[in-house]
Design a protein that fits this description.
This protein has about 170 residues and is an alpha/beta fold. It has a single domain, classed as Rossmann fold, CATH 3.40.50.300. Helix content is about 30%, strand content about 25%. Strands 1-7-6-2-5-4-3 form a seven-stranded mixed beta sheet, with helices on both faces. α1 crosses α2. About 40% of the residues are buried. The C terminus is likely disordered.
């Protein structure tokens, strides 16, 4: 049985509003070049989380699931963008490479839903958030940092969201 990474955080969200609030806190910490990978089945709260993430990032744009358009772009007044990529309908990494992920990361932050479908096209350093549906008003979230930048983000996020102690539900 794997031992939980000491830099990881687990949390049970009790409502869509709480999921959005966590997204707001994390979104405020993101910088251009950051990659957030969201895993989880349909209905696990990924788009709800991104709604908060975009607000924290500083955009006033409305957030919707990019399932049919592949990428939504949420603009910030300073010219940087939050790119929201849904890889669910993508054929694989080659199709993702055609989207110019490197340019997205140069001009903003990138959030990818269903990253496992295009994993080899994504940078190894990222923040992976595993999300699971538990009940109608409850979602499980596991924040896993991959790289020093994301260790720092999760550490700061944990401190802001939970007062530096163990996350609720741990």
């Amino acid at each position: 049985m794997p031992i939980l990474d000491p830099n990881a955080v687990e949390f049970f969200s009790r409502s869509p509003d709480q999921t959005r609030r966590l997204g707001i806190r994390l979104g405020a910490m993101l910088k251009p070049g950051d990659l957030v990978c969201l895993t989880g089945d349909l209905g696990s709260g990924k788009t709800t989380f991104v709604q908060g993430l975009a607000k924290g990032w500083g955009t006033l744009d409305s957030v919707t699931s990019p399932t049919f358009v592949l990428v939504n772009v949420y603009r910030r007044p300073d010219g940087f963008n939050l790119f929201h990529l849904d890889a669910y309908r993508m054929a694989g990494p080659a199709e993702a490479e055609d989207l110019d992920i490197d340019l997205m990361l140069e001009t903003g932050a990138l959030v990818v839903e269903w990253p496992e479908r295009i994993q080899s096209a994504l940078p190894d350093e990222n923040l992976t958030i595993e999300m699971r549906w538990i009940a109608d008003e409850q979602r499980f979230m596991h924040f896993i940092p991959n790289g020093a930048r994301f260790d720092e983000i999760v550490k700061a996020f944990k401190s802001q969201a939970f007062g530096g102690g163990r996350a609720a539900g741990n």
